[in-house]
Design brief:
The complex is a heterodimer of chains A (318) and B (364).
Chain A (H helix, E strand, L loop, with lengths): L14 H4 L2 E3 L2 E3 L3 E12 L12 E16 L1 E2 L7 H11 L5 E4 L24 E14 L2 E12 L19 E2 L5 E4 L8 E13 L5 E2 L19 E14 L13 E2 L5 E5 L2 E5 L2 E3 L12 E8 L13 E3 L1
Antiparallel strand pairs in A: 1-2, 1-6, 3-4, 4-8, 5-9, 6-7, 7-8, 7-11, 10-15, 11-13, 13-18, 14-17, 15-16, 16-19, 17-18
Chain B lengths: L12 E4 L2 E3 L3 E13 L10 E16 L1 E3 L6 H13 L8 E9 L4 E9 L9 E4 L13 E3 L5 E4 L7 E15 L33 E2 L14 E2 L7 E16 L1 E2 L19 E2 L26 E5 L1 H10 L9 E3 L10 E9 L6 E8 L3
Classes of the chains: A mainly beta (318), B mainly beta (364).
Chain lengths: 318, 364
């Protein structure tokens, strides 16, 4: 048993020691990875049972849930990190699941209620992950960064594959404000100071009763307390930007809301281009302060119902 | 501030017919039919009462447990009461009139309605005490609520993506009242001789039971040989039992092939729909043909995983037909494998597509 103090000369685990994550097999340097197996586990004592003690467990379904945040990086050839490409392309075209390898995330695939505590932990590949939301942001004071939320499950038991990447793979730099550009049909948008581009995928994770199978049929009625499916019910591409105003009002760039056909609201972040062909704008907000006046504008993309079923709907990457 | 936990139901436990049951709610309702009647009597005031029979119903909402608590859960008491209906010589009050098994993804429970005779001398039909339910002590086998991963189903052709099911076991009971036997000259009514208080009593109120005797005066053997005449409590008989239910399943529509010029986005080909029949010649409900009885091709099954049963099978190297570790949710005394589906309601929303269906089973 470890002595509870520095006298043990313990080597405390840090993100530098345990290394980062791989998305679809590609190494990704992250600021933060907070993806875990989650499950509602509680007690229920709302019964007539001869005393108030919590004696009955209530264990719901489990899934993978969490978020990644990372800088948007390019290598020395100005190529976007492959893992970021995978995440971006999946988020706008969520028809195939992502996978993630780590060497820090232990999971338990069997039924929690029957393997309590520390039994049967595994370091498995998270092989069915879906982006529930992605935010790509950049401002004049900060480098381009991405924050992504995931939902997922373990579809099959595959050991996490975590070979150390070649040092070449991690050489690069984060994209900065100087790598960005923005424009739209009616404005060259030279006074923009920050933007956030967001993809939101509405995910359902249903569970069902187990189908009846006989052992004689050769198919077992496999029991598992994970969610059983990941379904995407809705896709939204939205965004917001802030602009400095050089005079009190700028009559011809103020957006009073509504859609603008063919406006082609475009953001370039290094090799990434995001284009909202027909944005549906909210009314721009302009608070009056003692500082520089900053106007905020938000919008959603209008798109064909089946547009997310095909690639490159919002983002294209060179 | 005083602490008085005696006011709270969580500190109580309940037995029905001598069997311990853990439930989220019990209710015991007693009702004596009573009304006033006016005759041509020279005054509108209520001067005559019509006082009839006594009814007692007990309602329970009880969860379904996995683990040691499964011996005191709603499924256990419901199946015990179903067995009693099928074997009346073992039946004790209260008797089952309805048991609704609600099987869901997150929780499963049984809602029971039982009948008793309302006789205050019957203290075992509904007993309440302060005893802790020992089966819930986790030092034995811990107990948990049954979840989607504990229950498997096959309701007609529907076994994939089933989200919920309800099974309704309904018993028909008949209540009868008889005149007092002519040779019975013992005390009438209920209660302790001379000890009854709180209501208007006449001389000779007692509680002596009558025992049926043979013609030669010898004691008769059999069930129901002792009863108490001269009271308002019924004789309860069981006259019917039926099982029906309903369920909800997600619908899967997937275009796999494009045959017959139906277009690439149709679901009219074989195997392109699950839980909904859109292919020509297929049906969602169990249609009948002249002169024959049609039932669903697949046996009706709702089973619960039983770790104890599984362990016993493993130890005994058994291969039971019901499946390894799986046991019928309903009493194994009844065979409900033959069923018809008579309703199929398809619901198309932006979320999961679902179909609600109703079924009814034969009982063997």
């Amino acid at each position: 048993m470890a002595y509870p103090g520095i006298l043990t000369r313990a080597e405390f685990a840090t993100g530098l020691i345990t290394r980062s994550v791989k998305i679809n097999g590609y190494y990704l340097l992250v600021d933060n990875c907070s993806i875990n197996q989650t499950q509602e586990i509680d007690t229920d004592n709302n019964f007539i049972q001869g005393g108030p003690g919590a004696s009955i467990s209530n264990i719901q379904s489990k899934k993978i849930s969490g978020s990644l945040s990372f800088p948007v990086r390019v290598n020395e050839r100005f190529e976007l990190e492959p893992a970021i490409k995978e995440i971006i392309n999946h988020s706008q075209n969520p028809i195939n699941a992502l996978s993630m390898d780590t060497n820090h995330l232990l999971v338990h695939k069997d039924i929690t209620a029957e393997n309590g505590g520390t039994d049967n932990n595994q370091l498995l590949k998270i092989n069915s992950m879906v982006v529930s939301s992605l935010e790509l942001s950049c401002s004049q004071n900060e480098s381009a960064s991405m924050s992504v939320n995931f939902e997922g499950m373990i579809d099959s038991e595959i050991n996490s594959e975590f070979t150390v990447p070649a040092s070449f793979d991690v050489l690069g730099r984060a994209l900065s404000w100087g790598d960005c550009n923005a424009s739209r049909e009616e404005s060259s948008m030279r006074t923009i100071t920050s933007f956030k581009l967001t993809v939101t995928n509405q995910i359902e994770t249903p569970v069902f009763l187990i189908p009846y199978q006989t052992e004689e049929s050769g198919i077992a009625s496999t029991r598992n307390d994970q969610i059983q499916l990941l379904g995407i019910k809705g896709v939204k591409w939205t965004g917001s930007l802030t602009e400095l105003l050089r005079s009190g009002v700028e009559q011809n760039t103020f957006i009073h809301g509504g859609w603008m056909q063919g406006e082609n609201l475009t953001f370039k972040i290094g090799p990434i281009t995001a284009k909202y062909i027909t944005p549906l704008f909210k009314i721009s907000q302009l608070p009056l302060t003692s500082s520089v006046l900053t106007r905020t504008t938000e919008w959603s993309a209008l798109m064909s119902p089946n547009r997310p079923s095909y690639g490159n709907g919002l983002f294209t990457i060179v | 501030m005083p602490i008085n936990n005696n006011l709270f139901g969580v500190y109580k436990s309940v037995k029905l017919g001598g069997r311990e049951v853990v439930a989220s709610s019990f209710s015991r309702n007693r009702n004596m039919q009573a009304s006033s009647i006016n005759y041509v009597q020279g005054t509108p005031k209520a001067r005559v009462m019509d006082i009839g029979t006594v009814d007692e119903t007990i309602s329970i909402e009880a969860p379904i447990f996995v683990g040691a608590g499964s011996t005191v859960d709603g499924r256990n008491i419901a199946n015990q009461k179903i067995r009693e209906i099928l074997n009346p010589q073992t039946a004790v009050l209260p008797i089952l009139t309805a048991a609704n098994f609600s099987i869901g993804q997150d929780s499963s429970s049984v809602s029971l309605t039982l009948e008793s005779d309302g006789d205050p001398n019957n203290t075992t039909a509904f007993e309440i005490s302060s005893s802790s339910v020992e089966a819930l002590n986790p030092l034995g086998t811990p107990t948990r609520l049954a979840k989607f991963y504990d229950i498997r189903v096959q309701i007609g052709s529907r076994k994939y993506f089933v989200m919920s099911a309800t099974i309704n076991v309904s018993a028909t009971t008949d209540k009868k009242y008889f005149f007092i036997p002519g040779d019975w000259n013992d005390y009438r009514g209920w209660g302790t001789l001379g000890g009854a208080t709180g209501y208007d009593v006449g001389t000779g109120v007692g509680s002596t039971n009558l025992t049926i005797r043979n013609a030669d005066g010898s004691a008769r053997s059999g069930s129901g040989i002792t009863f108490q005449p001269g009271n308002q409590f019924p004789f309860i008989g069981i006259s019917g039992l039926k099982i029906s239910g309903n369920g909800k399943a997600a619908v899967l529509l997937e275009n796999l092939t494009d045959s017959g010029g139906t277009g690439t986005s149709s679901f009219l080909d074989t195997n392109e729909s699950i839980n909904l029949s859109v292919q020509s010649g297929t049906t969602d409900i169990t249609l009948q043909d002249p002169g024959v009885v049609r039932y669903e091709n697949a046996d009706f099954r709702v089973e619960i995983y039983d770790p104890i049963w599984h362990a016993a099978q493993t130890a005994g190297n058994l291969t039971p037909s019901a499946g390894f570790g799986w046991t019928s949710l309903l009493s194994t005394d009844i065979d409900t494998s033959r069923a018809i589906v008579h309703t199929s309601n398809f619901s198309l929303t932006p979320g999961l597509m679902t179909v609600d269906f109703n079924f009814i089973t034969w009982i063997k």
